[in-house]
């Protein structure tokens, strides 16, 4: 045993303890250095209760809550009313209706966001009495809903410009009337189209306004009014009520003359002459450029066009 011990290296207990102490000291310094560079451990950034609620809420809820929190109570009520109106209509709509092809408004977040944005801007302008801005925001909404299935929203927002007590004579409200004139004309509701068109023409004449695309609103209204009066005259012409038909066509001819559209002016003059011929007044018809067979007199049409 003693011999074996002689083959083992001599262990210096004191030196071993010193080396161990130095090793652990260096390890401690290394850890502290790493902590200093990395910084103290921080918990992951957490969402607020409000943000969590927005994720959990439906689009309708989050939009409505935001409107209420920001103080836009009228906009909230109007949006909810539109959503309810859409829901009620769908409950009784006939299968295959065009509007049913689109999802309910409550499921279309982008459209609800757009409505809430412009309604809140309109409400803010209303508080300060800037009625032209109120109508501008509502006109923008009417123009935004250009899809066929959104026709009901177009009508709603255009009428919200034209039917209000304050702001209805503004440029935006006048353009809304021009848009309504075209919409009613497309639907064949000629009397309503005529009323909107005449009001638009009068307001545009007083204000000298252009529409959003830079076109004179008066000329735009006059062009539509000629089409309206021409279509209104078709029924009395078919019933041989020549007096009523001529009255309507003369009104249309006047609007065509104001439209500054040479082709339209010539067409209007021709239609008036044709109506005189059908009434048996061939002399007046000839003065209007109509031959007995219903054709145009050479040179006469160019006189009306120029």
TrEMBL record:
InterPro entries: Bac_ResReg_Asp_Phosphatase (IPR051476), TPR-like_helical_dom_sf (IPR011990). PANTHER family: TETRATRICOPEPTIDE REPEAT PROTEIN 29. It is found in: Cytoplasm. GO terms for biological process: cilium movement. Its main location: cytoplasm. Keywords: Cytoplasm, Repeat, TPR repeat. It comes from the Eukaryota. GO terms for cellular component: cilium; cytoplasm. The keyword Repeat applies. This is Tetratricopeptide repeat protein 29. Axonemal protein which is implicated in axonemal and/or peri-axonemal structure assembly and regulates flagellum assembly and beating and therefore sperm motility.
């Amino acid at each position: 045993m003693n011999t074996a011990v002689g083959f083992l290296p001599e262990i210096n207990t004191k030196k071993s303890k010193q080396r161990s102490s130095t090793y652990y000291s260096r390890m401690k310094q290394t850890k502290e250095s790493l902590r200093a560079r990395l910084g103290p451990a921080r918990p992951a950034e957490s969402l607020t209760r409000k943000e969590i609620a927005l994720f959990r809420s439906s689009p309708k809820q989050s939009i409505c809550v935001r409107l209420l929190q920001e103080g836009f109570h009228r906009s909230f009520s109007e949006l909810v009313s539109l959503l309810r109106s859409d829901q009620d209509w769908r409950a009784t709509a006939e299968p295959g209706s065009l509007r049913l092809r689109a999802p309910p408004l409550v499921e279309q977040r982008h459209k609800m966001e757009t409505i809430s944005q412009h309604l809140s801007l309109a409400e803010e302008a209303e508080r300060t009495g800037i009625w032209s801005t109120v109508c501008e925001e509502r006109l923008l909404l009417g123009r935004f809903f250009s899809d066929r299935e959104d026709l009901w929203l177009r009508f709603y927002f255009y009428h919200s410009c034209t039917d209000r007590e304050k702001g209805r004579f503004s440029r935006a409200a006048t353009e809304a009337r021009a848009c309504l004139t075209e919409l009613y004309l497309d639907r064949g509701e000629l009397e309503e189209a005529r009323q909107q068109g005449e009001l638009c023409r009068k307001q545009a004449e007083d204000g000298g306004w252009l529409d959003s695309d830079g076109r004179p609103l008066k000329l735009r209204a006059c062009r539509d009014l000629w089409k309206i009066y021409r279509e209104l005259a078709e029924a009395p012409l078919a019933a041989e009520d020549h007096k009523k038909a001529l009255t309507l066509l003369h009104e249309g001819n006047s609007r065509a003359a104001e439209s500054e559209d040479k082709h339209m002016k010539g067409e209007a003059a021709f239609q008036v002459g044709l109506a005189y011929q059908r009434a048996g007044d061939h002399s007046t018809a000839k003065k209007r450029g109509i031959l007995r067979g219903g054709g145009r007199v050479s040179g006469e049409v160019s006189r009306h066009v120029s």
